[in-house]
Amino acid sequence: MSLTIDHQTFAGNGVLITGGLGFIGSNLARRLVTLGARVSILDSLLPDYGGNLFNIEGIEDVVRVNISDVRDSHSLQYLVQDQLYLFNLAGQTSHMDSMADPLTDLEINCRAQLSILETCRKVNPTIKVVFASTRQMYGKPDYLPVDEGHLLRPVDVNGINKMAGEWYHILYNNVFDIPGCALRLTNTYGPRMRVKDARQTFLGIWIRLLLEGRPFDVWDGPQRRDFTYIDDAVDAILLAAASSQANGQIFNLGGDCVITLRELAELLVEVNGGGEFTVRVYPSDRKRIDIGDYYADFSRIRSTLGWEPRIALRDGLKRCLEFYREHLPHYV
Amino acid sequence: MSLTIDHQTFAGNGVLITGGLGFIGSNLARRLVTLGARVSILDSLLPDYGGNLFNIEGIEDVVRVNISDVRDSHSLQYLVQDQLYLFNLAGQTSHMDSMADPLTDLEINCRAQLSILETCRKVNPTIKVVFASTRQMYGKPDYLPVDEGHLLRPVDVNGINKMAGEWYHILYNNVFDIPGCALRLTNTYGPRMRVKDARQTFLGIWIRLLLEGRPFDVWDGPQRRDFTYIDDAVDAILLAAASSQANGQIFNLGGDCVITLRELAELLVEVNGGGEFTVRVYPSDRKRIDIGDYYADFSRIRSTLGWEPRIALRDGLKRCLEFYREHLPHYV
C-alpha cells in the first residue's frame, strides 16, 4: 500500500507538540523536522512522566523547547498562537497513579485539555488539533476486535478523564469548528519510550532488565493484546492531521498481530538472542481493573486515511532493542 | 403494580442530599422526612441554579440545612460522616452555560464529584451513593427508544462532564466497593422546579408565563421528548438507594408518553383551561447542539427495581399548575 505524508502539508508550517519530550511526542517531533515543519515542543518534564531531553538529541537546535505545564494556561496562550497544527499528546498515563491521586489526573487529563481547547478557541480557532486518546476507556470488551462503536466503560480514573478529554476535542470540532480528531492508541512501543520502570509500559522495564542481563517479571494470564510500533503511530498522527476527513472523528489504532504477554516475552527473548523472565501471578491490586483480551478493529482509519501498521512486531522489537543497546544509560 | 418503599430502609437513618434545596433534591428531602429519615441538605444556593429555601417550607425544622458548595471539600468531609445514604444531586445543569463557561461546569460536574467520592472513600466507604445523571450524554440517538447500551456522544460540555461524573460513581463502586449507581434522568418536571426562567427546563418558564397570563414561546420542530413527573423520579431514586442490586448500575428513567413540544404546549394550555403561546423558529445557537427525537427505554430499571412512571403527563401538569397557582410569588 502507499502511505505517504505529503511534504507540503507540514513544510515551513508551525506545529506545537504538547508532551513533545515524551515517547510519542519526541518521535513525532523528529519526523516533523524531517518534513520541514517549524516544531515547538511544550513539556513539563515532570520526573515520573515520559519527558526526556535526550529524546530530542540531534534535533535540539532546530526545535523550540518550552518547559511548562499544560495546566498553565498563560504559557499556552502564547505557544498556541501562529501554529497550524497542535499535536496534543501531554497526559498523565499511569493507571495506578490515577487511582492513588485522582484529582491530579483530572487536572492534567480533563481540566488542562479543556483549557487548551478554550485557548485555541480564543487565539487560534483554525488550528488543527490531533488528540492522543487511549483504548483504555473501552474497559472490558463485549466483543473482539473492538471497533469505535463499542461502548466506553472505563475501569480507572485515568480512563474516565481521558474519555472526557477526548470528547472535548470532538465537541470543539462539532460546535466551535476547531478542527480536531482523536486517535485511540493501543500499546505503543519503540525507541524513546520510558524504560526506567513500568510507569509507561511494562515492555519498557522488560527491555531495560533484559539489556541489563536481569530476569524480568511477566504476569501470567491468557490476556491477549495488540501493539503499535512508534513509527506506525506517528504515521497515523500525521495522516489524521493532514486530512480534513479526520475532523470530528475518533480512530482506533491497532497492531499487526495479537499476542499474550507470555508469548511477547518469549518473542522478545528470542529477538534479543537470549534472556530470562519469571512468570508471576497477576497482582491482586491490578486484577480488579484488568480488562481481559483486547485488540482493536482499525478498519475505520484504514478506510478513511489509508493507515495500517507496517512494522511487524518482531521487527519493531528488534529496532527497539537496538536503540536501547546503544542508548540505555540515557533512560535509566 | 406494587411499588413501595420500605419505611425501615430509611427510618432513623442519616441521609445527605447535595443540591437538596433544588427541584429534585427538595422533593426527595420531603419524601425522606415522611419516611422518617434524618435528612441533611447541602446546597450552595447559587443564584442561577435551582436552590430555593421555599422548597423546604414546612420541613425546615426537621432537616439540617448546610449552605456550602460541593467544590468545598472541607465542609463535605464533615457532612458525609455518619450518613447511610448520599443522594448526589448537586450539579450545573445549564447546557448553554457549560458552553459559555466550560471550566466552571467542569469544577462542579467533574472535579467536585470526584472529590465527593474521594471523601466517601476516606471517611465513610460504606455509604450508598445515588447519582443524578442525565440522558443529555447520549447525544443524537442512533435508534429509539434509547437504552443504556446506546453509545454516549455528548453534544455539549455539560454532557461530557456529567458523563465523567457518572463514571466516577460506577468506578468507585467497582474498584473501591463504595456502593453507587446512576440514574439518567430525562426531562423531569413538577412542583418546586425553577420557573423564573428557562435555565432548568423550558417547561418552567412556560408555566410561569401561562400563570401570569402572558404568551410563552414554543420552539417549532418535530422533536419528540419524554417527561418524568417528580414523584416518579423520587421513587426511582429511593428504589435505587434501597436496593443493592442497583449497585454499579446505570438506569434510564423515562415517561409515560412521547410528545412534541408543540403538543406539550397544547396539552398544558388545555389542562390550564386557557392560555396562549407563540410558535418560534428554533434558535440557531441551539440548533447545533440539538439532538432530534429522544425518548428512553427504561426496561432495565423496570426489571431490576420494579420502577415505572405512574403519573400520567396530563395529571402531572395539573398538579404542577396547582402548585404554582398557589406559590408562584416564591419562585419569580
Question: Could you write a compact summary of the structure shown?
Answer:
The structure is a homodimer of 332-residue chains. With 332 residues, the first copy, chain A, is α/β, with parallel strands linked by helices.
Would you kindly provide a written description of the structure presented here, covering whatever features stand out?
The structure is a homodimer of 332-residue chains. Chain A has 332 residues and is of the alpha/beta class. Chain A has one domain: NAD(P)-binding Rossmann-like Domain (Rossmann fold). Helix content of chain A is 40%, strand content 17%. The first copy, chain A, has 12 helices and 12 strands. A 7-stranded parallel beta sheet of chain A has the order 3-2-1-4-5-6-10, with helices on both faces. Chain A has a 3-stranded mixed beta sheet with strand order 7-9-11. In chain A, helix 6 links the parallel strand 5 and strand 6. In chain A, helix 3 packs parallel to helix 5. The longest helix of chain A has 22 residues. The N and C termini of chain A lie far apart (38 Å). The model of chain A has no long low-confidence stretch (mean pLDDT 93). Chains A and B meet through helix 5 and helix 6 of A and helix 5 and helix 6 of B.
Q: Kindly report how far apart the N and C termini of chain A lie.
A: 38 Å
Q: What's the CATH class of chain A, please?
A: Alpha Beta
- Tell me the overall shape of chain A: globular
Q: Biggest interface, and residues per chain?
A: A-B, 28 and 28 residues
- CATH topology title of chain A: Rossmann fold
Strand adjacency order, main sheet of chain A? 3-2-1-4-5-6-10
Q: Helicity of chain A, in percent?
A: 40-55%
